[in-house]
Amino acid sequence: MNSTLRTFLGGVAAVAILATGTIGAQADSWKYAFEESLTEVQGVYATKFKESVEANSDHTIELFPYGTLGESADIMEQAQAGILQFVDQSPGFTGALIPEAQVFFVPYLLPTDQAHLARFYKESKAINEDFESLYAEQGLELLVMFPEGEVAMTTKEPVRSCADLNEVKFRVMTNPLLVESYKAFGATPTPLPWGEVYGGLQTNIIQGQENPTFYLYSTGLYEVTDYITYAGHNNFTTAVMANKDFYDGLGDGDKKVIEDAAASAYDYIVEYQKGLADSELKKIMEAKPEMTVTVLTEEERACFKAAAAGVEAKFIEMTGESGKAILDQMKADLDATKG
After folding, report:
1. CA-closest candidate to residue 76, choices 101, 93, 64
2. How far apart are CA 270 and CA 119, in angstroms?
3. Beta bridge mates, 193
4. pLDDT in tens, 68-90
5. Own/partner pairs for 61-65, CB < 8 Å, 24+ apart?
6. How far apart are CA 172 and CA 327, in angstroms?
7. Above pLDDT 70, what percent of the chain?
8. What count of other Cβ atoms lies within 10 Å of the Cβ of residue 322?
9. pLDDT at res. 26
């Protein structure tokens, strides 16, 4: 989507929202946009958040799933402008605003163990203190970050090593560090808006992409690729934010309602995701029995892990002392939450 059209659509969306309710600190109706459908992980979280807020206050929340208000950049602009009260967006897209958020794309930083991840996101100083101040500088109140599952690569040809990604046009989010990661892995990283990914795979404009398993099924991506590969290199992270001016203007009671809703929805989504990847992979195999699923061995992961060191160094080069401090704190937090 070109920038002129995106700006136009964003403006149309803004007018539509303003027409549906009053925006401001005293609004009874709050707007919440996210990057997935209502039945996907972000949508399930948003629904629980909405239920909690509405059960414990007089406020109502209107949910806007992916596509209803434009692309990811549109909903972030609307949240920063105060048109939306809440937004759920991956740090992958937020990296342009907050370079340190790209840390979530340092390969092999995050573990694949979901219980460990759940403890980490809940208890991490880096996430709950350091990132909170970085988001605040961009007019955003960081409410919570949560994991959405191990990222899998889907491709048209088998991937057993970095050499198998040579000359593969691999779709990535418009995130500089993710671009660097797939360069280091040997692929040709190709940034594309989400809306163009299915068609791009179908027409061979791209030959690969990455996403959590549940998303491979819900979006039908398995239909246009033949191989699913788990290299253990990353876990998809998402962040729920409020417009900071809106949030700061609330009374203590309303702030507590929001904080409690964020916390209870977090606990719910962690439990909801237990076994989700396995169940969705089973659905993929039932729908497409010829799909080849590979979990790389430690030996096969060696080249990817070797490349990760260079990507980590690139992250520090991009973000300086601030990024290094975040990275070091995350490593300390991950160690402290091993259990």
Report:
1. 93
2. 10
3. none
4. 998 888 999 999 999 999 999 99
5. 61/29, 61/30, 61/31, 61/32, 61/86, 62/20, 62/21, 62/29, 62/30, 62/31, 62/32, 63/32, 63/33, 63/34, 63/38, 64/31, 64/32, 64/33, 64/34, 65/33, 65/34, 65/36, 65/37, 65/38
6. 22
7. 92
8. 14
9. 54
- DSSP output for 25-72: TT-SEEEEE-SS-TTSHHHHHHHHHHHHHHHSSS-EEEEE-TTSS-SH
Confidence at residue 323, expressed as pLDDT on a 0 to 100 scale:
96
Q: Would you state the structure tokens that stand for residue 89, as one six-digit string?
A: 């967006």
Distance, CA of 221 to CA of 215 (rounded, Å): 8
- Nearest-Å Rg of the Cα atoms of the chain is 20
Helix 72-81, helix 3-20: angle, nearest 10: 50
Sequence-ordered list of residues with C-beta below 8 angstroms from that of 82, at least 6 positions apart, any chain: 23, 243, 245, 246
DSSP 284: H
> Measured between alpha carbons, how far is 76 from 64 in angstroms, rounded to an integer?
13
Look at the chain and count its residues.
339
pLDDT value, residue 71 = 85
The fraction of the chain above a pLDDT of 90, given in percent, is: 84
Q: How far apart are CA 231 and CA 278, in angstroms?
A: 16
pLDDT exceeds 70 at position 8? no
Q: Which two tokens stand for residue 287?
A: 């729908």
243 and 35 in contact (C-beta within 8 Å)? no
The helix or strand, by DSSP H or E, that contains position 83, with its residue range, turns out to be none
Q: Is 212 helix (H, G, I), strand (E, B) or coil?
A: strand
